[in-house]
Amino acid sequence: MTRFEQETRHRAPLFADRHVSQLHWGGGTPTYLNKAQISRLMTLLRENFHFNPDAEISIEVDPREIELDVLDHLRAEGFNRLSMGVQDFNKEVQRLVNREQDEEFIFALLNHARDIGFTSTNIDLIYGLPKQTPESFAFTLKRVTELNPDRLSVFNYAHLPTLFAAQRKIKDADLPSAQQKLDILQETIVSLTQAGYQFIGMDHFARPDDELAVAQREGVLHRNFQGYTTQGDTDLLGMGVSAISMIGDGYMQNQKELKRYYQQVDERGNALWRGITLTRDDCIRRDVIKALICNFRLDFNAVEQQWGLHFAQYFAEDLQLLSPLAKDGLVDINEKGIQVTAKGRLLIRNICMCFDAYLRQKARMQQFSRVI
C-alpha cells in the first residue's frame, strides 16, 4: 500500500485539471483489504483527485473473501457498483477449480448490496471449466436469473497451464470440447434473453433498462479494454502492479512483477514499464472494431467522413477476409455497410479479427476453435 500511495501522489498532479467520472477497484480480490485499508486508499484517492459528484465507483468482490458488514463499509466509502465473481454454481466444477463457495451467502450478499443502496450489481460467470456441460451450466443460469443482477458477464475460460501453475492440476480430458463450449454459449444467450436480459455482446448481458442496454439500442455504446461503457471520451489511468492506462492515443502498462514495481516506484515515483502510441491506421481500425463490437453494425459512410478515406479501397483485404464469414451467414455486407447477424454475434471476435492488422494471419486461418 505504501508504494501505491507513492505512485498516486507522484502521478496525480499530472491530472490536476481532470475530474474522475469512474473509479474501479479490480485486479483480483480488492476486498482482501480490511476496512481500515479500504478507507486509507479511498482517502488517498479523494485527496489527490477531483471526483464528480455522480462518479461511478465500483469494486470486484470474491464472495469467499468478504463479510456482509464489509459491504456496509464499502457503501459508506462511496462505492455504488458491485461486481461479484461466481464462475459456476455446480459443486463439482467448483471443487475442480478450487473455488468452492456458499450459494446461500452469495444470495444474501447480493440482496444486501441492493438493500443498502448499491445502484448496479454484476455477476461474473465462466464457461469452458472442467466437467461443465450445457446441462450443468443451465442449472447455474437458473440460479443466476433468480439472483437477478443488473448485469451479467459470461467469460470464456482460457486454459493456459504453462502460464498459470494452478491450472496444471486440471486434466485436458475434463475440459469441454469447442463444440460443447459453443453449445453452452448458445444456450446461455437463449436462456438469459428469455429471462429478460439484452445480449450486449462479447460475453455481456444487461437488463433492458440498464444504461448499457439503452446505449446499445441508441447506437452510442462504447468499449475499452475494461469492458463496455457509456463513457466513450474518457481517459483511463491505471495504477498498481501491471495496471494498464489508456490516455489519448497512447497505451501504457506498469511493471507486472511486484519486486520490480516496488523498486521502480522507490526510484522514480512511477512504475511505467512499456507503452505504445497508436498510428493513424490503428485509430481507424479501433473505430471500426468498436462499432462492430458495440453495435453489431458498421456504416461505411460514417468511417469515410470521419477519416477521409474510401472504405472499400482502404479495407480491400479486410473485406476479402470477411467474405467467407458472409457466406456462412455471420454478416450481411452491402454498399452501405456491415450488419452482424444473430448467428454472427456469437463469433463477433472472429468478425473483428478480419479488421485487426496485428491478427490478420489468424483471421486468414480462421482458427475458430481457439477463440471459442
TrEMBL record:
<dbReference type="GO" id="GO:0051539">
    <property type="term" value="F:4 iron, 4 sulfur cluster binding"/>
</dbReference>
<dbReference type="Pfam" id="PF04055">
    <property type="entry name" value="Radical_SAM"/>
</dbReference>
<feature type="domain" description="Radical SAM core">
    <location>
        <begin position="1"/>
        <end position="195"/>
    </location>
</feature>
<comment type="subunit">
    <text>Monomer.</text>
</comment>
<protein>
    <recommendedName>
        <fullName>Oxygen-independent coproporphyrinogen III oxidase</fullName>
        <ecNumber>1.3.98.3</ecNumber>
    </recommendedName>
</protein>
<keyword id="KW-0411">Iron-sulfur</keyword>
<keyword id="KW-0560">Oxidoreductase</keyword>
<dbReference type="GO" id="GO:0051989">
    <property type="term" value="F:coproporphyrinogen dehydrogenase activity"/>
</dbReference>
<dbReference type="GO" id="GO:0006782">
    <property type="term" value="P:protoporphyrinogen IX biosynthetic process"/>
</dbReference>
<keyword id="KW-0408">Iron</keyword>
<comment type="pathway">
    <text>Porphyrin-containing compound metabolism; protoporphyrin-IX biosynthesis; protoporphyrinogen-IX from coproporphyrinogen-III (AdoMet route): step 1/1.</text>
</comment>
<dbReference type="InterPro" id="IPR034505">
    <property type="entry name" value="Coproporphyrinogen-III_oxidase"/>
</dbReference>
<dbReference type="InterPro" id="IPR010723">
    <property type="entry name" value="HemN_C"/>
</dbReference>
<keyword id="KW-0949">S-adenosyl-L-methionine</keyword>
<keyword id="KW-0479">Metal-binding</keyword>
<dbReference type="GO" id="GO:0005737">
    <property type="term" value="C:cytoplasm"/>
</dbReference>
<keyword id="KW-0963">Cytoplasm</keyword>
<dbReference type="InterPro" id="IPR058240">
    <property type="entry name" value="rSAM_sf"/>
</dbReference>
<dbReference type="InterPro" id="IPR006638">
    <property type="entry name" value="Elp3/MiaA/NifB-like_rSAM"/>
</dbReference>
<comment type="similarity">
    <text>Belongs to the anaerobic coproporphyrinogen-III oxidase family.</text>
</comment>
<dbReference type="GO" id="GO:0004109">
    <property type="term" value="F:coproporphyrinogen oxidase activity"/>
</dbReference>
<dbReference type="GO" id="GO:0046872">
    <property type="term" value="F:metal ion binding"/>
</dbReference>
<dbReference type="InterPro" id="IPR007197">
    <property type="entry name" value="rSAM"/>
</dbReference>
<keyword id="KW-0004">4Fe-4S</keyword>
<dbReference type="Pfam" id="PF06969">
    <property type="entry name" value="HemN_C"/>
</dbReference>
<keyword id="KW-0627">Porphyrin biosynthesis</keyword>
<dbReference type="InterPro" id="IPR004558">
    <property type="entry name" value="Coprogen_oxidase_HemN"/>
</dbReference>
